[in-house]
Amino acid sequence: MRVVSVIVVLCWCSHVVLVSAAGANSHRSDSSSKGISGVTTQMVSLFSPEEYELDRYAAAMAATEWLRRERDAIIRENTNALAYWYLKATKGDQYTKWMSSPLVTDKSRKAQHNFLMLAGRIITSCDLSISRFNQLTKLVAQDKQLASRVNRQAYLYRVGAELHGDKFLPVEDLREAAKGGRSGRGNGEFSDGANGLSAMALLGQPKKLRLFAKSLREVESLRMEQRRRLMETLEVDELPQGLCMTRMARVSSPIVRRACEQFPLQAAAVVRANGLRTEEFNRLLQRAQKNLVYRYRVLRLVHKLGEQEEGDF
Fold first, then answer.
1. For residue 17, which of 209, 231, 246 has the smallest C-alpha distance?
2. What confidence tens digit (pLDDT) does each residue in 1-15 have?
3. Who is most buried in 152, 159, 176, 309, counting CB within 10 A?
4. What pTM, to 2 d.p., does this model score?
């Protein structure tokens, strides 16, 4: 397989949830999803297709609710009650207040920082940028009726997830993340508490790097085989790019939607078979996407593995 094929999977996998073999994405009202039980479910939406961003905003609010509660609980436990009330009541940027005030303990600062890191991952997984999420927050705050609709939609997402055992994102414990490890802003070394290893540390291990490259090759082979079967089934010569992106679900056929739902589970099985946890694979993938040097290392190893396979024939 050529190296160029693996570049595709580096981009394409960013739209695939590999966090859990049983995990399921939240979908719009006209698309189905499968929960842990394997039963196809339908998510009701209070928003029209033109209000897609508001639906995604509600999903992000629902998915980050547990994080907000964890953060507030940690801060209350480690902050003087009077100081906590004062900081909540005064105006100003919340992040600046909690990170710079002498009234706040180190544990509270770390909890606030980790909340922003984890919530940011969840928001972007809901097909919203952080800047757009902040814009929608201001918009919703100015309209009581809109705020009511968003809150009701978020409630539906929470109830749906609880009923069907679905997970929005990997279960990461904010308390564990707040206990230790460097959490410098934007350094790519944030530990999510899953195994205490950052993406940088994982990529620094030759064995992990090799397993990651091997997984990338096999996941890409799986993707190409899926596309080949779809083209045969649909009797077409080519498929459009971004076929499995959320915004395409509305116009996709049931056959395509079913294939897109199955791929994350199949890819997660490939990753685990190669000795990597899906959380590790996700962090390595993100690092390779953002860091040109590491991406070069990964692609060079992928190319080397390909040459070895060709030499075995």
1. 246
2. 333 334 333 433 333
3. 176
4. 0.42
